[in-house]
Amino acid sequence: MTELRVENLTISVRQTPLVEAASFTLKAGELVVLLGPNGAGKTSLIRGALGLLPITSGTVQIDQTALAELSPAARARQIAYLPQIRPLTWPNRVRDVVALGRFSHGVAPGKLSGKDAEAVDKALTSCDLVAFSDRAMDTLSGGELARVHCARAFATEAPLLIADEPTAALDPRHQFRILDLIKSYVDQGAGALLVLHDIELAARYADRLIWMKDRRIVAEGSVQDTLTSERLAEVYGVAAKVDGSHIRMEGAL
């Protein structure tokens, strides 16, 4: 079972601390949601864990192998990544964008082998994009674009997925649709770490929550154990009532 293990990760850029002594694990078969206010350090934490930001101290391992010992392609085969900003410069075909998920396997989008083509076809099918295969990306809606990026990540067939705000700017129906896709991916044996701002969605889908504030992880555990009115006051500075996974926000403290 593939495992990402981050221990005491500290990241500073030009003497400005971004993350301080953060530790967490991500295993195949679980969906973990990272929560916290803007500026808490969530994106910096996952980028450091992926080797996309230099770390000041601490360790990152994938299956007990130091991340630094793996080539970028080897890392990408182990962890698919959906960044917060996913710009597209050219009106590429949907199928070609999804095929980029096979790049870490040494495959160019226009030269897919049988196995690689099968992985792309499976990803397109799982995200209900077969009918869109030949559409240009600049003709798609926001929800359709989000599904294409999920399919690209799924085509990698990586055992782990890290996604930074995969539901940002989507309407409620498409938020559910994207999270249902990721949950299905996890149910098939992958592991996923998502950064979300919608706490009720996090409570609905997560097996485990990680809470960040002021560059540090301040709590971690099940929804039942960690989602409380006291936690929301501590982390977000809001008054709220919590009933299971239902939250009623009452205002800023």
Mind explaining what this structure looks like?
The chain has 253 residues and is an alpha/beta fold. The chain starts with a strand and ends with a strand. Helix 4 (114-126) runs antiparallel to helix 5. The mean pLDDT is 94. A hairpin with a 2-residue loop joins strand 11 and strand 12. It is globular. The strands form three sheets. A six-stranded mixed sheet has the order 6-7-8-3-9-10, sandwiched between helices. It has a four-stranded antiparallel sheet with strand order 2-1-4-5. A two-stranded antiparallel sheet has the order 11-12. It has helices spanning 42-49, 72-78, 94-99, 114-126, 142-155, 172-187, 199-205, 223-226, 229-236; strands spanning 3-13, 16-27, 31-35, 57-62, 65-66, 79-82, 160-164, 191-195, 208-213, 216-221, 238-243, 246-252. Helices cover 33% and strands 30% of the residues. It has nine helices and twelve strands.
